[in-house]
Amino acid sequence: MDITSWRHAFKLDPAKTITNEELELLAESGTDGIIVGGTDGVTLDNVLDLLVRIRRYSVPLALEVSTVESVTPGFDYYFIPTVLNSTKTEWINGIHHEALREYGHMMDWDEIITEGYCILNPDCKAAQLTGVTKVPDEEDIIAYARMTEHLFKLPVFYMEYSGMYGDPEIVRAAARILENTKLFYGGGIQNARDAEEMAQIADTVIVGNVIYENFKHALSTVKAVKSVSITEQ
Q1: Which of 32, 103, 126, 147 has the fewest beta carbons under 10 Å from its own?
Q2: Residue 186 to residues 24, 173, 183: CA-CA distances in angstroms?
Q3: Tens-digit pLDDT profile for residues 92-110
Q4: What does DSSP assign to residue 2?
């Protein structure tokens, strides 16, 4: 399945513990994809551990790259974030340049998806790591969305609230002006109701932390997302 048709995805943190039984339930839940990625504690060993355990299932599998050292063959897709509102150049193009120097000759470009990433929770670990120091307002978000689609022509604009539930009206403001670039939403999805609300706005809803906090609620988000269509913006 092409990522442009994904409606729902689970995001697994390699640094966190999950059982084989839980992985099976996630993989066979009807989700469109599983993304492996995290902010800290991501190593080649724990990425490989998840890869081996999930690969037995048919669900599409993506690695969201946060460190060059943790990249390994075997994933269907490699998501490469460029953090548009970072104050540190390494998160905009620095690490990307490093990766291309090392691995550019062997990359399969059909597997690589670059994400225009906008971090909207300045208190989260991802913001601290990437140097995001303030919350973008609605006009900032619209500008970043336009930058993603029209200036950089990236396939994905990812609004990352990372542990905090976002303002649907802010998300909708970005959705209104995107035409070909897909809108990914992630952050603070705690239950089916949250997932359903954001699924009416975003192309793809990413469910992460609740997997480790309330597994039953995490599973319920799949049906919730698949039960609704994107409403008229």
Answers
A1: 103
A2: 22, 16, 10
A3: 888 888 888 888 888 899 9
A4: -
CB 211 within 8 A of CB 186: no
pTM for this prediction: 0.93
- The C-alpha R_g of the chain, in whole angstroms, comes to 16
Q: In 10 A of CB 65, how many CB atoms?
A: 21
Cβ atoms of 32 and 7 closer than 8 Å: yes
Helix (H, G, I), strand (E, B) or coil at 138: helix
40-54 pLDDT per residue, tens: 888 999 999 999 999
- For 171-213, the DSSP string reads HHHHHHH-SSSEEEEES---SHHHHHHHHTT-SEEEE-THHHH
Neighbours of 82 (CB within 10 A): 18
Listed residue (167, 151, 125) closest to 16, CA to CA: 125
State whether residue 22 is helix, strand or coil: helix
Q: How far, in whole angstroms, is CA 56 from its chain's centroid?
A: 22
DSSP β-bridge partners for residue 115: 81, 156
Rounded Cα distance between 221 and 9, Å, is 10
**How far, in Å, CA of 160 to CA of 170, rounded?**
12
Do residues 47 and 63 lie in contact, with contact meaning Cβ atoms separated by under 8 Å? yes
Question: What CA–CA distance (Å, rounded) separates 196 from 227?
Answer: 8
Domain annotation for the chain: domains and CATH numbers: 3-226 (3.20.20.390)
Angle between the N-to-C axes of helices 20-27 and 215-226, in degrees from 0 to 180, rounded to the nearest 10: 10
CB 183 within 8 A of CB 202: yes
The amino acid present at 56, given as its one-letter code, is: R
